[in-house]
Amino acid sequence: MQKFRLRHFLYYVVTFLGIFFLGGRIGKFGKESSFFQGFLIQKPIIRIGLGVNLTDFIIRSSAGMKVYEVKANYKLVSDDAREVHIRARKERLTEKFLLQVAKTKGREEAELIAQNLRTKIENRIYIAEDTENCLEGIFQVKVGDFLSRQDALNFIKNLNQIGIKEAWILKEEIPKDKSKPLTILINDELKSLSQDTVLYFIPSHEQSFLSFNSQNYRGIFVLRTSPKGIVLINILNLEDYLKGVVPSELSPYNFDQLEAQKAQAVAARAYAIKNLGLYEDLGFDLFDTPKSQFYKGMNSENPLSTKAVEETKGEVTLYNGELINALYTSSCGGKTENVENVFGGKSLPYLKSAECFFEKQNEWMLKSNMPLLPIQMGGKDISQGIAFLISLGVIPKETNPSFYRERASFEDAESWVKNSLILLNKKNEKFAPENSALNFITLAELIICAFEWQDRVENLALSEEVESLMKDFPELMAVQRKAIAYLVQEGIFPTSKDIGNEERFVTKAELAFCLTQVISKCRDFLHQGIFRGYNNNKIEVGEEYERKHFVLSPDVFLLRNIEGEYSFASQVSLLGGEEVKWLERNGEVRLLEVIYSSDKDIFGQTSKLLHWQVRKSRQELEAGIDEYYPIGKLKDIIVQQRGDSNRVRELLIVGTESQVVVSGLNIRWALGLKDTLFDIDREYDEEGNVTYFTFSGKGWGHGVGLCQVGAFRMAQAGADYQEILKKYYQGIKISKIY
Questions:
Q1: C-alpha span between 703 and 331 (Å, rounded)
Q2: What one-character-per-residue DSSP string does 261-283 give?
Q3: Same-domain pairing of 158 and 295
Q4: Does some domain include residue 253?
Q5: Residue 418: burial class (beta carbons within 10 Å; 0-12, 13-18, 19+)
Q6: Separation CA 136–CA 323 (nearest Å)
Q7: Could you give the C-alpha distances from 107 to 130, 297, 349, in angstroms and in order?
Q8: How far apart are CA 304 and CA 292, in angstroms?
C-alpha cells in the first residue's frame, strides 16, 4: 500500500471500534467475526446522515430488527421488531446570521485580515475552515452574530465604508430549547426515552435490511440527538454505500457504459474517504444528498453500477501520494474549470481546466430508402401515422401523398381492418361484412363489428353525449348515431360537420388515421430506449437496462423529433446516448424516431444537462440577490472576468444603493442558475431600464473535475476508466488502498 495521508481515516476506524455502543463489548470488526449479535459489517465503514431534525417517522425491517437503548451501557429494547414509530418534538431553532468578509488559502492570511478588522469594528470576528465545499486549507473570516438578515444587510454598509466591498451573508441554525421528549412505539408498546438516549437498530439476520422513508438500506441505523435535532444515521460498509451512490449520481440507464460507471465509482470512493468526519458535529460523515453525494440506499442499486464498484474495490485517486478531492459535475458544457475560479482558495494541480472532447468519438450514419412527404388530413400532417401502419404491414408500402387523397373503397377498408385484426392477434370468425359504399356510417359499423365493440358502444356512449355530437343528423338510425358518437368521443374518428352525411366519402388518409387510432388504443407497438451503436446493419439499443440488437430495414422510416415537431429524414447522424423510439417487426426495425431538444451540444447531441436558457425579471433577480447583498433596486449585471472554460469568474451586480463584485460559485447561488457558463441578454422598457435578463448557458453543476457526460462519451469511444479519470484529474495515480 502506498503511503499517503489517511491518518484521519484510520483513526476514525480505530476510534469507532473503541467507543461503539459506549463501552459495550463487541467482537472484532472484520470478515473474521460478527459485528454485533451476529450481524456483520465489514470495514471500512462510513456514517451517512439520512435525516436531520426529524420529528415523526417510521423505521421498518424486512425480517425483524433488534433495538438497543444506549446510555452508559446498552440494553435490549426489542428483540424482533418489524416496525418502530418514533416521535420527537422538533428542535425549536432560531436563526443567526453572519457575514463572510474574506476567504483565504491559509490560516495565517485569515488571521492577518481578522487582526486588521478588529481595529476597525467592535463586532465579533472569528476564523473557521470552510468545510461546506470540502476543500482543505480554505478559511473564512466571519463577522457576527446578527439576529436577523436585515441586521446583517445593514451592517454591510459599515463594511463598505472601511473598504470591504464583498460580504456574503451566511445563515446558521441554533437550538433554542434543548429539551426534547422522545417516544417510540414498538410492538404496540409506547416507551418514553430521555434526552440523551441513543438508539441502535440492527437487523435480526445478516441478509435483512432496514427501511426509512420507503428506501431500503444495508447496515444498521443509529438515532441520536445533535445540535440540530434528532438525527438518523446509516452505518454500513463503504463499498456497500458506493453501490447506492454510483447509480444515483450516474444513471446506469442513461449512461450504461461500464468504464464510465467505474470512473464514477473510483471518484465517489475517493471523495467519501477524503471527507470522512466532515459533519462530525452531527455525528456522521456525509449527507445522503447532493450536498455530499446522492445516496438512496438499496433501491437505486443496479447490476451494472454494482459491477463497477466491485471491479474497482478499494481503488482511489492520488496526487503526490495523497488523496485528491475528487469533485465531479453533471455536465461541464465542453470544458471544465480551474477549481480556484469556482470555489476560491488555492489552485490544485489536479483540478485544472480540461477540454471535454474525446478524439475517438464514434459517429454512425443511418440511411433510409423510404422518405415520406407530408400527408395532410384536414390541414393536419398524419404522415407519422401512415409510416406506423406501413411499418406494421397494415397498409400497402405507398408513400406518395396523392395516393392518400384518393377515395377509399370498401375493399380497402375491409382489407386494412383484417390486417389490423391479424396484427393484434384478434380472431373474429363472424366478421364478414357486405360490400357497400364507404362513408363514415359504414366505416363505423365495420370497425365496431370487426373489433366487437358493441358492448362498449352500448355502455359508454351516453345518450346525452350522443345527442350533443349527432344533433345535426336526426335522420340516422339510433344504432348508427351511437356508433359514430362513440368513435368520435374516443378520438378514433376525426371531428367533421358532415361525418353523418351518407354522401360524404372517406379518403384513404382518413381511413388510415382511424386505424392508427384503433391500433394505438389496443396496443403500444413503440419501444423506447437509448441508441448505443450501429454495426453490420444492426442497431444496438438499451431498453430497461437490457442491450438489444435488431436488423435495420433498408426501408426503415427515420424520424427526427425536435421539441415534439416531427420530420422524416433520408439519413440521421447518431453518436450514441440519444433517446430513441422504434417499431420492430419480425426482428427488423421498420421505424426509428430520434428525440432531440432544440439545442445541440458540442458532440452534435442534445441534452438538457448541456444547454439551458433562463429568463428572469429584474424583480425576481433582485429578490434573490437581496438574500446575500443589499443593493437596492437592481440596475444591471455585468460580467467582469471569465475563467479558462469561459465560466463567469467575477460578476458586477449594480444596484441603486450599492454595487458588489460576486465571484465563483456565489454567482450561481445569487442568480439561481444551473451553472456559471453563460451569456446575458437584456430587455428594456421605454425609459431604458432593464426589465428582463435572459441567461443562455451550458453545463449543469459547478464545472470542476470529472464531467459525467464527458466520461460517458469517452467510455463509448473505447476509453477505460483509468484513462477517463486521468483526463479530468491531471497528474494523478490510481491506487488500491485496501
A1: 7
A2: HHHHHHHHHHHHHHTTTTBGGGT
A3: no
A4: yes
A5: middle
A6: 11
A7: 11, 38, 21
A8: 23
Residues 545 and 503 in one domain: no
pLDDT for 500-554, tens place per residue?
Answer: 888 899 999 999 999 999 999 999 999 999 898 899 899 999 887 788 999 999 9
Last residue within a domain, chosen from 554, 572, 596: 596
* Per-residue pLDDT at 162: 83
Are residues 69 and 192 part of one domain?
Answer: yes
Q: What is the mean pLDDT of the chain?
A: 84
Residue 718 forms part of a structural domain: no
Q: Tell me, yes or no, whether 474 lies in a domain.
A: yes
Q: Give the percent of the chain with pLDDT over 90.
A: 43
Residue type, 488: V
Place of cell 468519438: 361
Considering the domain architecture, whether residues 430 and 480 belong to the same structural domain is answered as yes
Residue 524, classed as helix, strand or coil, is: coil
Distance from the Cα of residue 591 to its chain's centroid? 29
Global pTM value: 0.66
pLDDT band at 301 (very low <50, low <70, confident <90, very high): very high
The domain in which residue 23 lies consists of 7-90+180-340
Q: Mark whether 124 and 246 lie in a shared domain.
A: no
The verdict on residue 680 lying in a domain is yes
- pLDDT for 605 equals 41
Partners of 659 in the β-ladder: 654
CATH number at residue 102: 3.30.70.1070
pLDDT digits (tens, 9 = 90+) for 44-65: 999 999 999 888 899 999 988 9
Mean pLDDT within 82-96: 70
Q: Work out how many domains the chain is built from and give that number.
A: 5
Nearest to 50 by CA among 247, 251, 211: 211
Are 82 and 230 found together in one domain? Answer: yes
For residue 59, the tally of other CB atoms under 10 A from its CB is 22
Indicate whether 442 pLDDT > 50: yes
Block residue for cell numbers 444515521: 233
**Which has the closest alpha carbon to 162: 176, 148, 143?**
143
CA distance 309 to 315: 9
E strands present in 473-564: 526-535, 538-543, 546-562
Is the predicted pLDDT of residue 25 greater than 60, yes or no? no
Q: Which residues contact 398 (CB under 8 A, 6 or more apart)?
A: 390, 404
**Residue 426 and residue 508 in one domain:** yes
Q: Spell out the SS3 assignment of 552-614.
A: EEEEEEEEEEECCEEEEECEEEECCCCEEEEEEECCEEEEEEEEECCCCCCCCCCCCCCEEEE
**φ, ψ of residue 183 in degrees (nearest 5):** -125, 145
The Cα 521–Cα 505 span in angstroms is: 25
Q: Which three cell numbers stand for residue 734?
A: 490510481
Distance in angstroms (rounded) separating the CA atoms of residues 131 and 287: 13
Task: Indicate whether 162 and 235 sit together in one domain.
Answer: no
Given 177, 202, 220, which residue is the final one in a domain? Answer: 177
